[in-house]
Amino acid sequence: MTRAIHRSLLLPAVAAGLVTFACARLAFAEPVVADSTAAATAPVADADVPATDTLATVLPARADSASAPGFNPRPTIGRKLVVLTGKPETVLRSGPGGGFAIVGTWPAGTRFSVIAKSGAWIGVKVSDTETGWVHASLCKELDDLSGLQYRPNPRLYSRTGSYVVSAYGGAYAYDRKSNSAVLGGRLGYYVFDRVVAEAGLSWTHVHRPAEIVESLFDLRLEAEDFAMLFYQMNVTFELLPGRQMVPYVSGGVGSTLMLGRSTPAVNFGAGTRLFLSRRAAMRWDVRDYRFENTSTSGVRRNNNVEFTLGTEYLY
Based on CB atoms within 10 Å of each CB, which residue in 12, 41, 238, 260 is the most buried? Predict the structure, then answer.
């Protein structure tokens, strides 16, 4: 009888344990199976689930660099558009100016993506391998292009490769004893922003009153009145290149022609250029010319000083 009682209590306990184990297994397994099945069988529609939403569920949120302080806005080159308005056709050029080569012509209404802007000219993408420039008056901006305008430093220009033509006048002190007017001109070339190679030609008329000149066995009065022509090849080094006011130092070699003779000469000096515009400038200069000339009284060493003021034009 005791064995029968134990058997009757054991069977319900075992049954209850099996039921509890089965329920617990189903409770833990059900979410995993549901998610796996949904991921494997549910179709993904691009229209219903955008790519940005999908990435947002995987990647953590990140602050937009365009709106974060201290960051530059994202570039929009190629996303802004212009439409041609010139009739019947508009000419596109290879650079921002009317002197550049013609790329082609396109009818009014043609749209181009913008890649750059320079003054009144807009650079557009003509094809995958070709670009062109159109004047702003011949097209309509469909977007704000102010962010594409190139604004260089107004105090700094690059003048490399420019030619300089100058004319000047001033005073010339011959041997520190005679002052006369001097006229001349120069042609220069900007080899670099700091270095200018120049060729110059000047003329003056020397008049020195009579003075006592001592030779080996004679004392006599001599007056000098003659024209003098001198030319030189100089190199100018600018101390503050590219600015509106440019101080410089200069030096070179040349020759002095006077009284039918030619004498080698050297010169050195300093001055300042004041640019009134990008192409026109004023220039003042002080220069020392040194040479020797032979006369009846022997060899004379000349140390002549020149002060000049002139104008320059770059092209």
Answer: 238
